[in-house]
Amino acid sequence: MLAHDDVAQWRARVFTSLMSVVLVLALIAAVPSAALAVYRDIPAVALMDTAALAWILAIWRMDRLAYRTRVLNFLAMLYGVGIGSMLAAGAIGLFYLLAAPALAAVLLGTRQAIAALALSAATLMVLGLTGQTDIPVGHYAHDSLPSVLILTLNFTCVGGLITLSCGTLLKGLAGSLKDVRTFAGSLEEGQSLLRAMNGELRLTSAALAGLNEMVLIVKVDDRPGAIQPIIFANRAFERRSGYRADEIVGSSMRMLDGPDTDPAVVARIVEAMGRREPVSAELVNYSKSGEPYWVEIDMVPFAGAGGPITHLVVVGRDITERRRSADAIEQLAFFDVLTGLPNRRLLMERLHALVEGAHAGRGLGAVLYIDLDNFKSVNDARGHATGDALLKHVAAQLVDAVREGDTVARLGGDEFVILAAHLGSDDAAATAAALALAQQVGKALRRPATIDNQVYHSSGSIGVALPLRPGQTMHDLLREADTAMYHAKAAGRNGVALFETTMLAAAENVLTLERDLANALERNELALHLQLQVDPAGAPVGAEVLLRWRRADGVLVPPDAFIPVAEETGLIVPLGAWVLHQACLAWRELERAGHALPLSINVSPRQFRQPDFVAMVRAVVHETGVPAQQLIFEVTEGLLVDDIDDTVSRMQELAQLGIRFSIDDFGTGY
User: Fold this and answer.
1) Tens digit of pLDDT for each residue in 371-414?
2) What's the whole-model pTM score?
3) What kind of fold does domain 340-500 have according to CATH?
4) EAL domain: from which residue to which, for each copy (predicted)?
5) Burial of 37 per CB tally in 10 Å (0-12, 13-18, 19+)
6) Which helix (H) or strand (E) holds 218?
7) Among 38, 139, 609, 623, which is least packed, fewest CB within 10 Å?
8) What sign for the dihedral angle of Cα 256, 257, 262, 263?
9) Which fold has domain 211-324?
10) DSSP 555
């Protein structure tokens, strides 16, 4: 391209083209001229034309000669033809003499052109003064000095004008070529930079397309109501959303919203987009098929160097599994696995808020503590699967029975707690509302449940407590509701009890009794009494072993006071083992005294159902040497009703040892 050539190269190209043209024109002009000269018998002209044509042909053929040599030969040829023409034909030679400096300006330079012009002018003057030319000038003789001077000056002026014009044009062309070369260099550098940038852009685009993270590029549109269209979506986005890039380009990001998309999060993102600020968020998007998935996005504004923000780059990560794991962890941390109800941890958080709200004057609430009646019997008789199904049924009934906003929680086992908020602004109204709710809950608990085609009936003992006292903590409130529940259970079960402060004293007595009973064995405060059993004639036929407890201070604790506590706390198991061992030792004493009698020993259902009960009895009998036939276990009819298969199996094992059985308190409901 011309933009890459310098002036010398340009001159060489011009000269080569010029020689081809000159050769053609020389043939056109010289051949007829030579023929005419021969015809008119002008051999000098014919010889000059032939020599000039041969010279031109030689210059044209000798293209390996140096450029300057060829040009000088060409100019010399013109100069020679000019002189010859002046001598032979007169004024026609002026054109050749004038062409030499003009072409020198183009092919060599201004200085060489001026030298050629000076040579031509000097030649013209010499030829004029010597009378070799016949060019008249006005009234002067053609060989007079004035005529020659006028001709030479005019020739010089015209030649100088043409020569300088060509030189000036050539200089301007050289400057233009330099500018073009500079521009071409800049353009080439820019093209190289552009190619490099395009390469980087393609690399970046390929990297974006290959990322595992979803990438969207949104064009900023400041027009009112504009949708801020998506202009790019990578393959990761296509894979997760199900949309092809051409389906989403031009659309708004809002097309990914759905029913579970949080409007507050969307509003925050839209607000950040409007302010052209970065934003991070987690929200639910919807795929093309309608599948919801959680995505974590980071949106960053993009602007050119120093320019306004033109685009928003959105990078998204699929966090569906992470959210599911977090939800599962939260479910395990705050909710009961079996029923799905809030567990103790979440209950205590909400109970704290209820108590704080009451102390702050935001209305009174209540705590309902529920313990299912006789649930253990169902669990033992029908197995844990049935028990779990019954617990789920109870949980559903409790949720249906309370108001929206109330909390139903499972503490564990068969214990549930209801937190009822905003029952009233004064004590009386709140208490009445709490008791009414408790009655409603009790009614719901009595609804039968059908499990494996079997109908089960349940009920519950409900304790109610309200945060009525200043300084009352959530632990106080829960303990008071628990205390009230035990009063409801003691009153015959399937009832409601409102906590009263007098219950605290009773609860403290129970706790004291439990603690002292645990230490009674170590302190030797327990003793066995034998109550004779006689026949109709009054003859002794046996004795019933009775457990009595006299404190170290001499106070006798009645059995109906400490036996229920032992049953409730599980102390009945070690107490029963101690009673059996002591009864066997007592029989040995009676035997040595000559009064051996069968002994009847009370066995509680809880003790009887211990996995190692039969083994324990066998070990005691073997250790003490008491004939097993001398032992009669008194059990309640309730033991025979619950889990009859296991009960009969154990009774048969004990009977094989020789143990006999009798029903205690038959018909009383125990």
Assistant:
1) 999 888 788 778 889 999 999 999 999 999 999 999 999 998 89
2) 0.50
3) Alpha-Beta Plaits (3.30.70)
4) 510-670
5) buried
6) strand 214-219
7) 139
8) positive
9) Beta-Lactamase (3.30.450)
10) P
